[in-house]
Amino acid sequence: AWPSHRDILNLVTFYGDFENLDISDIDALQTEAFRLSNSIENEVRTAGPLGLRHWILTSSLLPAGGAVVEALVRDVVLERLTRLALAMRLYEKRHGQFPDTLEALNEVGFDSKTSAPWGGKPFGYRLEEGVAVLWGTPPRVGPHTSDEPPELDDTSAEFSLEKMFYLRLRPSAK
Fold this sequence. Notes:
The protein is α+β, with helices and mostly antiparallel strands and 174 residues long. Helices cover 46% and strands 10% of the residues. It has four helices and four strands. It has helices at 5-19, 26-46, 48-51, 56-95, and strands at residues 124-128, 131-136, 159-160, 165-169. A four-stranded antiparallel sheet has the order 1-2-4-3, with helices on one face. α1 runs parallel beside α4 (56-95) and α2 (26-46) packs antiparallel against α4 (56-95). The N and C termini lie far apart (72 Å).
């Protein structure tokens, strides 16, 4: 009889473990979801030909769990990038130009140290002829922020999720 009772039990256990992941810390979430996925993949690999029938449902839903975690992390990073862009605009409104560094945004209530995209690496930032360029890496690339903005296929892009989170803010009209 398919699915087996054990397969259903494995699926319920997987859902329970997945549901109990702490989503308040996206770095820990990503790490724990990866650990959970690896654990299940190891169980499936070592189950043997007859034991595989006990993992059919769980292993078929495993990629969906990873996609949910990646989407959640991506949404959190986009929310942080949005808050950063708003802080940049507020600073620009007060001073007539964008700041020289992200640390200067502390003055408008934005803590650049605790608002990293993920992985503890800060957003990248530089000014290019008065245009603010912000970037950070999405989860599928890994927690690394380069000192240089990404190379984009479309160099006129104002916003991209192609290889990294990338945003160009042009100065407001005066």
